[in-house]
Amino acid sequence: MPILRPKLEVPLSSSTLPAPLMFRSAYVPDHGLYPEHQHAWGEFVYSFSGVMEVKVLGHHYLAPPQYGIWLPPHLEHVGLNRKAAHHCSLYVSTPLCHQLPADPCALTVSPLVRAMLEHLRLQPAGMPAAGAETRLLKVLLDQLVVAPRAGSYLPGSEDPALGAVLRMLEAEPGDNRSLPELAQAVHTTERTLMRRCQRDLGMTFAEWRQRLRVVRAMPLLEAGQTVETIALDLGYGSASAFITMFKKLTGSTPDELRKAALG
């Protein structure tokens, strides 16, 4: 697994940033890893493609391109990606972090925020922020302050029964067993799993399984696999059922995402 260097040239031991807001982007290879680290400033992490993954405080946060992950200052975290990706970070100095959540979470990325991030990543690497760019960074921060908070797009659970079910589905996303069948497999009841889904995941089991399938489909679409093949691999009887679910959750069809990734 390639060990990646921080995108920011400021030493992690530094107590301050050279500027109140700083933006950096980087291309990373398959299975890239940012080892556990922390810094005195906040960080908003976003992946232009694929799925961003951050491990923090015993939780595993995943965020497809409709979301970014906010990390408050002084928080030990690990960043990783299973597929090659292009991602970025907005670094926020400590005095400005009070406007953002005190806990790590996924933030919804609006079309406006996405457009600003796309613009910023096209600027020459390593250049100090000019006047116009500084103003844009301030607008970007304002947009993140009001962005809807999503917790983790695909939360996990430490519960022995529910955690076992989630791990089974993560290993085989096309598993179509019903909740009663899965409950029986881990020696519990459907009612118990339903309660623990709401308690630990904040959503129904059906919604969690749909989100898992979206997360697994994205890198396959970006790699050029056909929608039909992915739909069948993920347990759908037809491509149309998969397309309907995918568009409901992401706002675009699988084919639109695949074509955009392939350029």
Task: Explain what you see.
There is one protein chain. This protein is of the alpha+beta class and 263 residues long. It is 39% helix and 21% strand. It has helices spanning 111-121, 131-145, 160-171, 179-185, 190-201, 205-222, 227-233, 239-250, 254-262; strands at residues 21-28, 32-37, 42-47, 52-56, 59-63, 67-71, 77-81, 85-92, 105-108, 149-151. It has a six-stranded antiparallel β-sheet with strand order 1-8-3-6-9-10, with helices on one face. A hairpin with a 2-residue loop joins strand 4 (52-56) and strand 5. It is globular.
Structure in a nutshell:
The protein has 263 residues and is α+β, with helices and mostly antiparallel strands. It contains nine helices and ten strands. The chain has helices spanning 111-121, 131-145, 160-171, 179-185, 190-201, 205-222, 227-233, 239-250, 254-262; strands spanning 21-28, 32-37, 42-47, 52-56, 59-63, 67-71, 77-81, 85-92, 105-108, 149-151.
